[in-house]
Design goal:
Blueprint (H helix, E strand, L loop, with lengths): L18 H28 L6 H5 L3 E4 L3 E4 L4 E3 L2 E2 L19 E8 L11 H13 L2 E6 L7 H10 L8 E5 L2 H7 L17 H6 L3 H16 L9 H9 L3 H17 L2 E5 L11 H6 L10 H22 L3 E2 L1 H4 L3 H4 L10 H21 L14
Parallel strand pairs: 5-6, 5-7, 7-8, 8-9
Antiparallel strand pairs: 1-2, 3-4
């Protein structure tokens, strides 16, 4: 009888000795894929229109080759709020000219102009003006959460500016401040020439990856904020910083807007940040990456961006609605839900400021009835 060689395992006929390890790897792989699938389904359910995670994960956005990203067309935010064929909160279909006898207002901005989802300031302006002026009012809200002045400029120059209106309102700055500030993420700097690769575009549509980033921001906020003087190195960094990109983009937007619309308004940044924050204000504020949750840094940066808004408004002869001043009190800061977003009462303050400005202008020269200045030729 032939003996088996020492050191060799005898196996049953037809059975591979590697089958068991391979089976374990297959099980682990299928388990991981199952968990990923369950996570994707769960997060997509979680980011339904009634969840704040919709905004955190960007479930309402889609990639755009010209402006980088935009609101999804025909997207249901809930509570009767739905985007049109362009992804705007506006009538569908949207005509180039306003309907006869209707005052149309175009809004260009970021999340401040679309939140809270029920009661954002453009939503409140419309009925206020309708009652005050006795005319029809049409809102075209092209604001996109996450937009910097560069995104907004591209959208305005390539698409939005072809629509006629009597009033154009712009409120931008917070995403510039976070992305392109002195401690902003380097890959988002203009000089880096950052572009999404096909793989990165794919990854932006995986909610599980979005969730990790959003959760990281929530955890950072939970650590709590401070308001400390800056180190000499940080002070020098902030002293040198000038938001040139923001100024240039705003100036380009206002120049084009003045050539298209008879009435153009710009707003500066309203904020919860201040030099002597309360404990509640520190708990409520949130911060861009890299600021060490230091309200003093954020307050300095808000001042620089508001100086840029004031400068470009003066140079272009565009009225500036001073929101910073309107919210510069302990009482008014109670309306904030973080450093820059507000509840419905805070949005109402902005709405009243804009309505007051429009009422004064309409008393001088009514826009309706009459021909819309800057009518498109195509």
């Amino acid at each position: 009888m032939r003996r088996a060689r020492p050191g060799r395992r005898r196996t049953e006929p037809g059975r591979c000795p590697l089958s068991r390890p391979r089976s374990r790897w297959s099980l682990a792989l299928w388990t991981a894929l199952g968990l990923l699938l369950a996570s994707e389904i769960g997060l997509r359910v979680l980011t339904d229109y009634n969840s704040r995670w919709n905004m955190r994960l960007g479930a309402h956005k889609q990639f755009d080759p010209v402006v980088q990203f935009r609101n999804k067309p025909f997207y249901d935010w809930g509570n009767g709020i739905r985007t049109n064929e362009y992804g705007y909160q506006a009538p569908q279909p949207l005509s180039v000219k306003p309907p006869p006898g209707v005052l149309r207002i175009l809004y260009l901005g970021d999340s401040i102009t679309v939140t809270p989802l029920v009661g954002a300031y453009p939503q409140q302006v419309e009925p206020m003006l309708r009652e005050a002026l006795g005319v029809g009012v049409e809102t075209v809200n092209a604001a996109v959460p996450g937009y910097s002045s560069q995104n907004a400029r591209l959208l305005f120059e390539n698409e939005l500016s072809r629509f006629d209106a009597q009033y154009f309102v712009v409120y931008l700055g917070w995403n510039d401040l976070g992305q392109f500030g002195p401690e902003g993420l380097p890959y988002k700097l203009d000089a880096a020439g950052y572009h999404l690769s096909p793989l990165q575009r794919l990854l932006t549509n995986i909610y599980s990856i979005r969730f990790l980033y959003a959760a990281q921001r929530v955890l950072a906020h939970s650590r709590g904020a401070v308001s400390h003087p800056m180190s000499p190195a940080d002070q020098a960094l902030y002293d040198r910083y000038v938001p040139t990109h923001f100024y240039d983009n705003l100036r380009a937007i206002l120049k084009l807007a003045k050539s298209r619309y008879p009435n153009v308004y710009i707003m500066n940044l309203a904020t919860i940040t201040n030099d002597d924050p309360t404990e509640w204000e520190l708990r409520t504020a949130h911060f861009p990456v890299g600021m060490d949750e230091n309200m003093h840094k954020l307050n300095v940066l808000v001042g620089k961006y508001n100086q840029a808004v004031q400068r470009v408004a003066a140079e272009e002869g565009v009225p500036m609605i001073d929101l910073y001043d309107r919210f510069d009190s302990r009482e008014a800061r109670q309306y904030f839900t973080d450093s820059c977003h507000m509840n419905r009462d805070g949005a109402s303050v902005i709405a009243h400021a804009l309505v007051d400005a429009i009422r004064v202008r309409e008393a001088q020269s009514p826009s309706v009835p009459g021909e819309v200045v800057g009518s498109a030729t195509n």
